[in-house]
Amino acid sequence: MTTDQMTRRQALALLGKLGGSAALMQGAALFGLARPANANESSQPTALKPAGQGGPKVLILGAGISGLISAYELTKAGYQCQILEASHRAGGRNFTIRHGDLIDELGNPQHCQFDNEPHLYFNAGAARIPAHHTAILHYCKELGVEMQLFTNHNKNCYAQDPAVFDGKPVRIREYEADVRGLYAELVAKSVQGKSQLDQPFDDIAIEQLLQFTQAFGDLSADMTYQGTERAGYLSGGILSHGKLKQPRALADLLRSNFVLGAMHFAEIADQSSALMTPTGGMDQIVNALLKQVGSLVQLKAQVKRVQLLPQGVEVSYFANGQQQTVRADYCLNCIPSHLLCGIENNFPEPYLQVMRQLRRGKLSKIALQAKERFWEREQIYAGISWTNQDITQIWYPPHGVFKQKGILLGAYSWDPDIVDRISALPHKERIELALRQGEAVHPNYRQYIEQGNSICWQRMNHMLGCGAVWSDELLERSFSVLQQPVGQHYLVGDQVSFHPGWQEGAVRSAWFALEHIQQQELKKRSAV
Amino acid sequence: MTTDQMTRRQALALLGKLGGSAALMQGAALFGLARPANANESSQPTALKPAGQGGPKVLILGAGISGLISAYELTKAGYQCQILEASHRAGGRNFTIRHGDLIDELGNPQHCQFDNEPHLYFNAGAARIPAHHTAILHYCKELGVEMQLFTNHNKNCYAQDPAVFDGKPVRIREYEADVRGLYAELVAKSVQGKSQLDQPFDDIAIEQLLQFTQAFGDLSADMTYQGTERAGYLSGGILSHGKLKQPRALADLLRSNFVLGAMHFAEIADQSSALMTPTGGMDQIVNALLKQVGSLVQLKAQVKRVQLLPQGVEVSYFANGQQQTVRADYCLNCIPSHLLCGIENNFPEPYLQVMRQLRRGKLSKIALQAKERFWEREQIYAGISWTNQDITQIWYPPHGVFKQKGILLGAYSWDPDIVDRISALPHKERIELALRQGEAVHPNYRQYIEQGNSICWQRMNHMLGCGAVWSDELLERSFSVLQQPVGQHYLVGDQVSFHPGWQEGAVRSAWFALEHIQQQELKKRSAV
Fold first, then answer.
1. Second label for A367, Cα 20 to 30 Å away, from A225, A289, B455, B521?
2. Interface pTM (ipTM) of the complex?
3. Mutation choice for B interface testing from A273, A403, A514 by most B CBs within 10 A
């Protein structure tokens, strides 16, 4: 193995993974190290029974997706809700950044200077919703959030790897066509070169295997790979014969990290077509929820103390320059566990122990405003280019096609070492990094970029991290410790799911708590 | 081979092909029989030089895409254009059907009864635009046509084949995950079971080949396939461990036509991500062109006679109950060649000969109005399900997500025998066919469908066919005969391209003629 080559674990650390900590789990899926990714749990919450007059009071700590959904469902059933949110905005990691928005990174606060146009935004956190995430989609539907298609996979995007092809960007289309073709040719040779008995495929009709192999690789009649229109033509095709591109060598292709990792990214259940995203930005979901329960949200209210009472919960918080204390029958606590365990509390020790062991993912994104949508001239209208530089990915917006300007995601990184490097840079230097590395993918990149914004979630005020990262061992041993309430206190959010980093985890964690509260209420009533 | 199994040519005839005659060529691409599919020709037309006062008169026969584009470019340069269109509408095979529209099939005219809602339409002809079709996209951009993503491939759609799995629909996600996994396992066995010398892969690093194989199939650490989250979980995944689905047997999977054909459909250059479609229907392109040149179009004007003159062209047509005759300096003739050769003319014999040999593709679509978007409950929001019944495909609309009703494409057939069978049915029986066969893909399908529309292009008035079908031999020998003008008469349209059935072929054919006219004009002027 040359030094360009990587072990499976190393490749995993660099590519094939994605946002948040779900992140790490998703990447793992590429290599058969996977933990759960999707589900077919019920697509609707249990309908809460009306709480009756003077319904129980529920205090919700955090106005992210799990908190807002909880308030929405509870108020529909007559519970009295109050939401305390530490930061200046609701939504949590559902955060769409536009003109004027504050990115409240500690030591590095930025105001977004993008032009004030509806299509000039980027989703700094959650950005895509797989079709099987039925819980979050339930609310998109119920609240009338307009949806459009999203795609990770676009054959016209590039893969770039310094280790192969002189570091030149190569269209994913060409990678895929050649790898399929050459791999299929190898298989065909292997199958055809042996007597029937010598085959490991005794129970498979060899003819069908060859037919599949031919269709898979677009092999010629003689079962060799001679290039394919799938790779796009070198020239011609409409008014003259298309000229095929020359295939690359399989040995070279297989030296590329892309082929060993990211090429299979859109096979992952959560990353595969059809994906969707709200038209106009992911925060359309937050806005729709705020229309329902916005009046219950108090911003800039920082929780200082959580006390479990024999019945209910007492919370002290700091807001408007004063400390205040409130009591409630129930508390749904969405504060990130690694912060929560450092807030004054009287939680039982085993509960705290798990919180203290639960790590957080790191994630950074850099968004760039382009004065010209140069990628459209390169026949790119959505999807992701991959590079194994620190920027890792470039995303092209699927919206605002043909407009003058657009927002590129110029970097999306989740490898902890990479994110630490990016996080250690002041804003300007991050942009410079994105420009410099982006030029390996798009020559002359820099000339099109007017300005940028960056976000490192582990430096974000009141968050200090992305999704929870459960080790296998901790998940097995202690998930239910955090999932179960202590008294009337519930820890919720995507952190209390097998799917952190996804809104689906947040919603289902809330649904779990709501159902549990309902059980407690029904017990109380039947006891009366 | 059992009778379930098909030869490559047979499989080709049934699946893996698509609309029009480009159709046949595209399908062929699956099996290495391909002709050209895309191109990197210039993405802009040659700018026509101003024609000056009293610019030359150009008569355009047919208001499809090639005719409208021609008129748009020519009038910009000061040419005087007149467009005669035989049918009651402009657009040709760019035809979006909505409430009240007439589908003018001979002997089977229908008025569309879909509810009068903006999202309740279907694209009866052109429906998708690949990102490399830069000529038609040039106009979408220039004319401000709003675009959105489109996808053929959606892992949540189904493949259904009576020959396998008791004819039950299987998610494409499961097909793909299992086929990749089991195929990879076979390769791994084959590679690992041999001494290095025995390998056909001498020049490939075996370790990398195995790494790729593992990532490709999502194999376990021991290089066996044990199922994968890529197939979607049987249960759980968000609040509990996801339970993997049991893989199917490779022998069964390989007996499916889907695996041998359509599974590779979205690898075809013209069918691969990212595809786009105009928001609100493909005819937004026609509408944008009509805003520019609509006043030049005379509908219901049927050409009866085309005469080449020593200078120019004379055309007689029937309109408003009368025959009229006009002369022009140039004629751009978009009339389908198989009809044109039956109109009185004085074309040279070799020109006519080619027209007489040029066949037409057949294509039918059946659209169904669903009173409920039941597919969304099945986690489907776009894409295509495949079946090897006559209906061949079911398309789910990528627009109007979460609205009450939607229009499904309940059948999309291009195999000539199949289309002949559908074409021979009265409208009502076509709908019944779509419902009956659709129930093999979606049980209870029928209960959701309120009404439908059907279109068989070979019965469409003034068209009598879909895209041109060039045999290899005819294309080699005679393409340039039709592409070159006779005198001042140019045959244009997608029929005069290597890419019939696509708007890209229509636009580039027009561009070819326009550039030729420009050359003639420049010669004339320099001669003066």
1. A289
2. 0.90
3. A273
